[in-house]
């Protein structure tokens, strides 16, 4: 059986290539072919000797992801791709064409074990975590598409299915690989990582000392509400989560984003807005209000436009920086996990 080398950094590649006794520069050449020039066969690597290309082809695979299905929003700004890996596991990757550039939203796990009540990704639990190579394959899939339009991936959010902190080592290895000059030379400043509130993960990330934007899915202003919609809160209480977010902002000087999905009669009341203001008072933070994309599996509904506006007004009056997320792709059910579930249902997976 051939070994897959897609996703290895130059150190890992050098190790894999040891039996071939190649000069060191060949490692970098092969990495550049895979990660910058999109080669999926050694035969494409034209600056390698022909015999070597054949030997490498016989020993290794370069496994990327296969497109299974695609959905485009009617405004053409959002496209969602269901990508399948070699073992048949599939994840969703989203391209959002924003005024400030092209943003890709990637999944870090297939499915999710965190159990948030409003999220379709967790309906069937987690199938498995993704490897660094698989996360890279998601980005390169989008990057290849954009190349055809003379564009590239400008920003990246780790907000698809999965809890990145539950796949910490692979996620960090993926981000380091993206940052390498022989890969995408991707700035950490253009990365946002979202967590449901895995507190030890926030502290670990803080110690990395990288300018990654942290986004915390808060979705409630107190433990009573959060316990009901986010099981993770049973382990790490809201005060601990917000404290970790505050320290992260102070240490990295990056504004922390608190995601807050507004759900009718669950967390969208005036008292909730006041409580949230109190909780975040004095923090380098921004609240991103997200009117819920109704999830049919769980009867959760979207508040009226007036209620949403009132919530925002209260935060603003209390000097909490807040915005209502501009909706993208609701007509293609862009909320994480919904398309994958539909696909699994249709294919009886
Ligand atoms: S919101 Fe995020 S952490 Fe929660 S279940 Fe969905 S994918 Fe998992």
CATH fold node name of the largest domain:
TIM Barrel
Largest sheet: 10 strands, mixed
Bound molecules: iron/sulfur cluster
Q: What is the CA-based Rg, rounded?
A: 21 Å
Number of helices: 11
- N-to-C span: 27 Å
What is the string of helix and strand elements?
Answer: EHHHEEEEEEEHEHEHEHHEHEHEH
**Reported CATH architecture of the largest domain:** Alpha-Beta Barrel
Report the structural category.
alpha/beta
Question: TL;DR?
Answer:
Pfam families: Radical_SAM, RlmN_N. The chain has eleven helices and 14 strands.
Q: Your description of this structure?
A:
- By secondary structure, the protein is an alpha/beta fold.
- The protein folds into two domains: 3-61, Orthogonal Bundle (DNA polymerase, domain 1), CATH 1.10.150.530; 66-346, TIM Barrel (Alpha-Beta Barrel).
- Helix content is 35%, strand content 20%.
- The strands form three sheets. It has a ten-stranded mixed sheet with strand order 3-4-5-6-9-10-11-12-13-14, with helices on one face.
- Strand 12 (256-262), helix 9 and strand 13 form a beta-alpha-beta unit.
- Helix 6 (199-208) packs parallel to helix 8 (238-252).
- The model has no long low-confidence stretch (mean pLDDT 92).
- It binds iron/sulfur cluster.
- Iron/sulfur cluster is lined by residues 112, 114-116, 119, 121-122, 161-163, 196, 217, 336.
- The site of iron/sulfur cluster has 13 residues, from loops.
């Amino acid at each position: 059986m051939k070994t897959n080398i897609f996703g290895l950094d130059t150190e890992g590649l050098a190790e894999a290539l040891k039996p071939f006794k190649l000069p060191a520069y060949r490692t970098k050449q092969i990495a550049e072919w895979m990660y910058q020039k999109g080669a999926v066969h050694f035969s494409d690597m034209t600056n390698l000797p022909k015999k070597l290309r054949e030997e490498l082809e016989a020993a290794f695979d370069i496994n990327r992801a296969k497109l299974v299905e695609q959905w485009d929003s009617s405004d053409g700004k959002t496209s969602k791709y269901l990508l399948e890996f070699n073992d048949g596991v599939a994840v969703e990757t989203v391209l959002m064409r924003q005024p400030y550039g092209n943003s890709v939203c990637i999944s870090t796990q297939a499915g999710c074990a965190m159990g948030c009540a409003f999220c379709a990704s967790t309906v069937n639990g987690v199938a498995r975590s993704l490897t660094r190579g698989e996360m890279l394959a998601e980005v390169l899939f989008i990057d290849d598409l954009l190349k055809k339009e003379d564009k590239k991936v400008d920003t990246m959010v780790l907000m698809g299915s999965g809890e990145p902190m539950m796949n910490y080592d692979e996620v960090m290895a993926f981000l380091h690989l993206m940052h390498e000059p022989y890969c995408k030379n991707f700035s950490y400043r253009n990365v946002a990582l979202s967590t449901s509130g895995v507190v030890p993960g926030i502290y670990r990330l803080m110690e990395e000392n990288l300018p990654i934007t942290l986004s915390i899915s808060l979705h409630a202003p107190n433990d009573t509400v959060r316990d009901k919609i986010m099981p993770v809160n049973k382990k790490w209480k809201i005060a601990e989560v917000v404290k970790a977010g505050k320290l992260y902002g102070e240490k990295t000087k990056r504004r922390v984003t608190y995601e807050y999905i507004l759900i009718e009669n669950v967390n969208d009341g005036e008292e909730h807005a006041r409580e949230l203001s109190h909780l975040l008072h004095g923090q380098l933070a921004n609240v991103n209000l997200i009117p819920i994309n109704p999830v049919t599996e769980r009867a959760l509904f979207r508040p009226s436009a007036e209620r949403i506006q009132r919530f925002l007004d209260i935060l603003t009056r209390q000097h909490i920086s807040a915005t209502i997320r501009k909706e993208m792709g609701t007509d293609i059910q862009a909320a994480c996990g919904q398309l994958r579930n539909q696909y699994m249902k249709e294919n009886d997976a």
